[in-house]
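Module 6 notes. Inverse folding takes a fixed backbone as the condition and produces residue identities as the prediction. Think of it as a translation problem where the source language is geometry and the target language is the twenty amino acids. Below is one complete input and output pair. Work through it position by position during the lab.
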């Protein structure tokens, strides 16, 4: 009986922590900083001109998202993969994109896509 109660408690705690992580992810975000230390000057200049402060995401609680960058808009669906601690976006050109979550707080979300690491900041819109 103790084993069953322990198992039920573990499952409920796991479900609750996944829900809390998803709650931290939902909302409006903007890319605010490149976290890579080895970006060449030309790449950093491009990021500052085209991405930083301009690429925005709205991750909705219903699993849908909108994004905009350089006048282009896209939408699709998002899921949180608790096993790989990743945010998976479907509907973006080139197939699903998997962003590894490096950090997730109420106001900051650090993501890794390929070799790029980015800091997103929550915005109020």
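Target side of the pair, the amino acids:
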């Amino acid at each position: 009986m103790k084993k069953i109660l322990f198992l039920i408690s573990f499952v409920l705690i796991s479900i609750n922590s996944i829900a809390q992580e998803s709650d931290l992810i939902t909302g409006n975000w903007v890319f605010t900083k490149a976290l890579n230390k080895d970006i060449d000057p030309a790449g950093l200049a491009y990021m500052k001109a085209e991405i930083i402060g301009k690429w925005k995401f709205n991750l909705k609680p219903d699993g849908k998202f909108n994004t905009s960058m350089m006048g282009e808009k896209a939408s699709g669906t998002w899921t949180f993969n608790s096993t790989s601690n990743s945010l998976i976006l479907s509907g973006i050109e080139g197939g699903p994109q998997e962003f590894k979550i490096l950090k997730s707080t109420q106001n900051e979300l650090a993501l890794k896509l390929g070799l790029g690491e980015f800091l997103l900041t929550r915005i109020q819109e």
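Reference fact for the lab report: Helices lie at 2-25, 41-50.
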